[in-house]
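Table S5 (text form). Sequence records supplied for joint modeling of the three-component complex.
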Amino acid sequence: MFTFIVFIIAGALTGLITTYALDMKTRKELAQGTRGGVIRAKIRALLGPKKMSGRRGASPGRASHRLAPTKEIWQTKNKKKTSRR
Amino acid sequence: METAWYNRWLEAFAAKASRPWRLAAFTFLISLLYPGTRFFLLAVIFIVLVVKSVEYGVKNGKWWGLKALIGVFLFSCLVYAAAAAEAYRVARYRRALGDTIPLDLKTGIYEAEADGARGPVHVQVEIIETGLSPTGNLIHRIDSPLELHRETGSIGGNAIKELNYRYRPGTEKIRALNKDLITRRLDQAMDSIDGITGATLTSRAYRKAVKTAIIKAHRTPKKLSTFTHFVYFFLKNEISKISFNTLAIIFILIVFFDYTLQGLLVRGTGQAVSCMNCQTCVGACPVKRVELDGKEYAFPMDMVLAARLGDYELVKKLSWFCVGCAKCSGKCPIGISAPSVASAGVRFLKAREAEKEKADAGGGRHG
Amino acid sequence: MEILGTITLLIFIVTLVATLLGWIKMPVQTVLIGITLVNIVLALIFFGLQGMADELRLVPADVIGRIILHPVTALLGGLFMGGVLGAAGGFEAIKAIVNRLRKTPLGLAGTLVILINIPLITMLPCGRIIAAALLPLLFMFGPEGSGTLRKTQLIVFIAAFARNSFGSCGPSPVGGVAQIAEGTLGGATFPDAAAGILRGPQVFSLMIGTAFMALFIRFVTKRLYPEDTVQIKDREGGVEPEIKVNWKGYTSLIIFALALLTATFISFIPSLKFITVQAIFVAASILIIIVCRVSLGDLMTGIILMPATAMVAGFLAAGSLYPTGGMQVLQSIFKGLAAFPLLGVVGTLVILVQAQTILPLSCSRILTAVFVPLIYVFGKGVGLTDLQIGIVMAAYIINATTSCAPSPLGGAGMMAEGQLRAETGYLKGAFSFTSLAVMAPLAAVFMRFITLDVFARNPQTGQMMFTATWGHLGQTILWSLVIMAAAYGLIVVMSRLITASLGRNRKVLIASFGLGGVLCGISLALALRLGEPVAGTSLGVSLVQGIIGGIIAAVLIALMIQVSFAGPPLKENVQAVEG
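The corresponding structure-token record, covering 1031 residues in total, follows.
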């Protein structure tokens, strides 16, 4: 899901930038370009492997968990199941 | 300029061995190398033939080709079934010594020896027809005549006497051994023969000798007939995951190599093989784009690529658009000269046509 | 052993650089095979004189054994698929769909944005396949076609498409460049690395890199080089390009999409794992051939051989460095650089990340075969964690993937230049700058905050864990925005400083590339600090090291651009032809 969000934002931004670089500076054209960028990003995110788009949700936790796995991991994992779905 | 002998030879090869023949040769070579692919290759050839015959049928209204192919298919199914049946039988016999398939024993008395503690232990196994087991023949008794071996004294001799007594006709032990022989592997069945405490070596030798005797009594396993060998050459590994992937890879390789080979065989067009499709030549060319027979070509890159594939007719047609300024060869990062490649291709085409005419004329004289 | 390693390494590097500068005028593949043969002969002589019989026997096997078959065959499958798609009219169908999009609320601008990004959506294993098919269409939007776009717009448009197209070979699941690195990364920490651990960062940075390519061309290139290097006839008005598509095109496109989806998702079904990508693609291609009645001749015209041969040649040349000890010498060189206090581990890593942008060959697969194992072993040697190696690899692979675009050796960028009728090397600076200052940092950031979380596993139990947080998401967006803003500022300032004087422009170019390198160094140094210092250095030190490494890499890139920019051999040829 996070990948999806980041992709959408990046898509919108790049759509905007590309349209601007293409010398299309009216408000309508910029909006169209942004929309195109978002659509493109959506397609791309859906095409990626399941894991890439991270659709199984994300748990609140710290990155340091990966380096030193403790009991907290399981707690956070359970928390995720109850809270985020 | 004098052509070198190898160039002449290569071009003769390129002219004679046309693409279908080369592909057939490749296919044959690969089917020899990779047994797993043979079934697929045969299937592909068959499907192609079916498609061709359907096309022919639709065009001419004659369906004999398709009928023949269906006949061939049915016939090969029959042949395969016959071969598979024989293979199944053979496999049953072969597995008999090491698997759960019942032993197929001949009647009679079989003798064998194995080394015991002080000398050979001699064993006789009598096999008679009982009508009880699936094969009909089973062990009647096991005997070890004392006068034939040297395991004398209190230990070995007594052990053998004891074993002889236990495996006399009609005992519980003999029945258990027969049952083991039917349901288990030979080695496991032999393990169930009693051991005598204190006479380990003698007992071991006794077991070994019984096993050898039983193997002697076994009917010799059959071998696959030449017919089945022949059928299995093509159809042994019908479907397996490895063969499918191998086939995919090999198919790609065949197509790639064959289509680059043509460019290499003809003198002057070989440099087209290293074309990187960068279209720099298109940028330099004053013509740039050619429309021919409803198709659009990036000029001169597509002319060079056509020479690589061996489509010399297209090269000839496209070369009419070339103005010969050679700006493309100056720009090309590898230095391919499109005009020279094209002219080499056209030259080869003309040579081939001339040879064909000559051959036709020669054939006409004979006919 | 070390003497031999040094000699073979020298031969390798010197020959490559000489080819790059145009002193050796041969296809890179030929040069590489030559290097391999020379190295093997040297090794045989050396081991023979020393009487090392075991090494002598192992040399040929060691060289051949370095060829990794899976990417090669997957690439062949992908190229085959591309050829079939082209022959069946699949690309025509894409054109028709895009044309129809213009009438939707997306309008022209939205359609152009999607069109620019089509290579990233289709993800074929070589950008040339789709570029060869679509570039003529893009050109028809310009003044010589329908006249929808002006000349300046057309230049920006085609350049952005080229950037997108020639990076799309990295994230491809069908023998993409990144597969080599994904295979290397796969192990205890990333058991699913082969499922595309590097795909996310690449796609992300490529999307943004495309936009920045457009910006760079818009602001810098057109000022740096007068417009008469691009000779497009300015003709107002024209005819709309008419696109005829039959059912075959759409059918082939649908089959292709299904095959792509199958290939992407099949690795998640354990019982079907044995079906490889190449098998799927060959099956789909054969299906298209049968359904759409494609002739083999048509198919083969669309196939581009170059990446496959380049890949094999690259593997061979890299393989010739292993038994002779060249790789060890290369490793010890980089270890020596890392021991140099001003550069340090971070600085060396920044240079390694930019290595392929410094030496752009016609297909990135050639050097990837050398550098991926090198980075892995180097990282392990200087004590990086697996996660840090993953970050470096993400930054490296996107630069490697995009390095075929600025190559003067028949690189893919030449396709766009040829299409634009521009001077060779016209787009080179823009390609290199986006790789250097935008794409590598963004890939590192994305890998650090998003992908590592998605792919994380508990190292003890092997269970999947998801460690992503909203904070990570925020940081990704924040850092990306910072990097993009900095790159934008650089581009704008650079464009203001450019004047008519050539010498001054060179200085401006080198300076701004240096600043781009600083940007790259800072971002990589920050991304690498994953809760623990890199090789025991403090944050300040690793930042300084990153900056220095970035500057060195950037200056090398800038010099390389200067030297091989429409370099001596091309000029001579033009003169020879004209004179």
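Note: Chain A touches chain C through 56 residues (CB under 8 Å).
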